[in-house]
Specification:
With about 400 residues, this protein is an alpha/beta fold. It has 15 helices and 17 strands. It has two domains: about 160 residues, Aspartate Aminotransferase, domain 1; about 230 residues, Aspartate Aminotransferase, domain 2. The strands form four sheets. The chain has a seven-stranded mixed β-sheet with strand order 4-12-11-10-7-5-6, with helices on both faces. A four-stranded mixed β-sheet has the order 1-2-3-15. The radius of gyration is 21 Å and the shape is globular. The relative contact order is 0.16.
Length: about 400
């Protein structure tokens, strides 16, 4: 028996993996589009797309082609050299956005780490060492490094790791007065998710982002948008900032950018980028040819009217199903979000029980997500078939009935 054929089961996770996760009871082994099959051959409808990562679903033929073609050429070369896929992808990201420069990393956390370091370096170089404070929103999520969990506004992720990085202030989301009260000439950056993802699928109000832009300009601070979850077509535009008409100085992307292959990117202006001179920041794997070849293909497909308009149409189909279900069961107080980032806020009677709905969905061969204990989250493939939406919602209704009927 070859090493790759050693039989494994879910119980092995609890024996050999560091227990930072508690995965579901089944092991997916194959995916196609928005369907997934487990070890026993059971077919599930996937309304998670790997937490907004598999933007084009599972095993998309164009992505398989891009990966296998590049795999036969060049896997890794390091940043002592450059490579064609990275240059092509960066050129297309610059052409499609406000950005003039791109830094490639391997994840959203790394993209955000680069963004926060750049903001501090920019302020240090232009205004002096006292301008280092960063303002973030409560209930935000920006990654799991020490810097990013400190900036993320959820103490449960940042407590217990020793002294925290100083100069971080958290204010309520969508509260412009609160932001105005704390921003100062010591602020180097304001960091916001245009749609809070992990914090409960909560969209920003237009006036809030417009006000944040004005406050940053008045205080010589950079505006950073974390679009790791809400970007790459998920809102119905290529990036959510385009929906609001508010342009940041730095934008971070990951998740859907690689369509399932790990990659992150920090997009920024020429003025900010030049404060990152040679050797100031770096990465071994960032700009990897394999990742960039796949991401370039993802971008080519997603950044088209067909896909982006389709996301908005699919949003309406989901919302129609969810509203009909809610009329019957009354379990949600709000259905919110944009495009195919949808959050359903549980009513008081069901507060804290998102996990129960998650578990019931799995029993109905359906994959969904939570965004905290009080919100159910749907982040399906941007190209999910209408039939899969309908089937998924039928299974979800059966899951809801399971919970409601005890």
């Amino acid at each position: 028996m070859s090493a790759s054929n050693i039989p494994v089961e879910r119980a092995d996770f609890d024996k050999v993996i560091v227990p930072t996760f508690a995965p579901a009871a089944f092991i997916p082994v194959r995916g196609l589009g928005s369907r997934v099959w487990d070890q026993g051959g059971r077919e599930l409808v996937d309304l998670t797309s790997g937490i907004a990562v598999n933007a084009l679903g599972h095993a998309h033929p164009a992505l398989i082609e891009a990966l296998t073609e590049q795999a036969g050429k060049l896997w890794h070369i390091s940043n002592i050299f450059t490579n064609e896929p990275a240059l092509r992808l960066a050129t297309k990201l610059v052409a499609a956005t406000f950005a003039e420069r791109v830094f490639f990393a391997n994840s959203g956390a790394e993209a955000n780490e680069a963004a926060f370091k750049l903001a501090r370096r920019y302020a240090h170089n232009l205004y002096g060492p006292e301008k280092y404070e960063i303002i973030s929103a409560l209930n935000s999520f920006h990654g799991r490094t020490l810097f990013t969990v400190t900036i993320g506004g959820q103490a449960k992720y940042s407590d217990g790791f020793g002294p925290k990085i100083q100069g971080i202030t958290h204010v309520p989301y969508n509260d412009l007065a609160a932001l105005k009260a704390v921003i100062s000439d010591k602020t180097c950056a304001v960091v916001l998710e245009p749609i809070q993802g992990e914090g409960g699928v909560l969209p920003a109000e237009r006036a809030y982002l417009e006000g944040a832009r004005e406050l940053c300009d008045a205080n010589n601070a950079l505006l950073i948008f974390d679009e790791v979850q809400c970007g790459m077509g998920r809102s119905g535009s290529l990036f959510a900032y385009m929906d609001y008409g508010v342009t940041p100085d730095i934008l971070t992307s990951a998740k859907g950018l690689g369509g399932g292959f790990p990659i992150g990117a920090m997009l920024t202006t020429e003025a900010a980028a030049k404060q990152f001179s040679v050797g100031v920041h770096g990465t071994t794997f960032g700009g990897n040819p394999l990742a960039c070849a796949v991401a370039e293909r993802v971008l080519d497909i997603v950044n088209t009217p067909e896909i982006l308009q389709g996301v908005k149409a699919r949003h309406e189909r989901f919302k129609s199903h969810l509203n009909t279900l809610n009329e019957r069961y009354g379990i949600f107080t709000q259905i919110r979000g944009a495009g195919l980032l949808i959050g359903c806020v549980l009513a008081d009677a069901w507060k804290g029980r998102a996990k129960d709905f998650f578990d019931a969905a799995e029993k109905e061969a359906l994959m969904i997500l939570q965004a905290g204990p009080d919100v159910l989250r749907f982040t399906p493939s941007l190209t999910i078939d209408e039939a899969d939406i309908d089937e998924g919602m039928m299974r979800f209704e059966r899951a809801v009935a399971r919970v409601v009927n005890g």
